[in-house]
Amino acid sequence: MKIKKILNNNAVVVHDHGEEKIVMGSGIAFQKGKNDIVDPYRIEKVFIMDDPDQYGHLQEMLRTLPEEEIAVSESIISFAENELSVTFKKHIHIALTDHLSFALKRLSKGMVIQNTLLQEIRILYPREFQIGLHAKKIIREKLNIEIPDDEVGYIAMHIHTAWVNAGASGSGADKAALIRDIAEGVERTAGVAMDRGSATYERLVNQLENILRSDESGKLCNELAPEIVRIAKERYHTAYEQAKWVAAQVEEDYDYTFADSQLVLIAMEINRMDTRLKNMVN
């Protein structure tokens, strides 16, 4: 591999058998110049130009962003790949590094963007959230910057998206937001305000995640038998009507249609919340 262009001390553009690539590795460009041969033992990552736009973006990012920020991003990605036993697709190297760069600039100016899905992310994606917490530690140790948990949640979602794109099952921020909005609807109809960090809220989020879960063909994983649905509609009539109201509030926003089976299960959650409130009063 011959060096065509040096992007920074740890990244170079090379010619390899007539193909242009970006090669990364610690100190890979140290005391090197154009047309020098890359030390193969220093190569850690190779990026091929399969998407010209992303390839160009990656080059510009490696050339202009602080090397220590890029190194931190790569450390987080490598840790996540090891923890999840997966190799992410190349886009994560752009997405996460871009995000971190902007986030660190905001934090340096005292600007914190609230992550309104933080608790849902923590509950729904615990492995990714733990990786986000490790990222917080890396950033503190390498850059001497303390990021808030709001940013931990954003990093966790980047890792979750990369994991899904690499073949893991899952969804993403839309599902977390949908669950949050259903949970808020359940609260309103039941007249209960839950602490987002409580075990009660965690249980509700997990229940709603189970209610929404489907297989690859789109079939619900927890679909109820028609006779059970019929009986439940009668037994929990008021709660079922409330569940229909909750569904109507979110269906258009998320282009999602609830099945009768799901409405019954949501109704049972509303009824449970309502019963809990009455027990507290009595």
Sequence-ordered SSE layout with sheet pairings:
Blueprint: E1 2-8, E2 11-16, E3 19-24, E4 45-48, H1 52-64, H2 67-84, H3 91-108, H4 118-124, H5 126-143, H6 149-165, H7 173-190, H8 199-212, H9 226-235, H10 237-254, H11 260-281
Antiparallel strand pairs: 1-2, 2-3, 3-4
Helix pairs in contact: 1-3, 2-3, 2-5, 3-6, 4-6, 4-8, 5-6, 7-8, 7-10, 7-11, 8-11, 9-11, 10-11
Structural account:
With 282 residues, this protein is of the alpha+beta class. It has helices spanning 52-64, 67-84, 91-108, 118-124, 126-143, 149-165, 173-190, 199-212, 226-235, 237-254, 260-281, and strands at 2-8, 11-16, 19-24, 45-48. Helices cover 61% and strands 8% of the residues. It has a four-stranded antiparallel β-sheet with strand order 1-2-3-4. Strand 2 (11-16) and strand 3 form a beta hairpin. It is elongated, with a radius of gyration of 24 Å. It starts with a strand and ends with a helix. The mean pLDDT is 89.
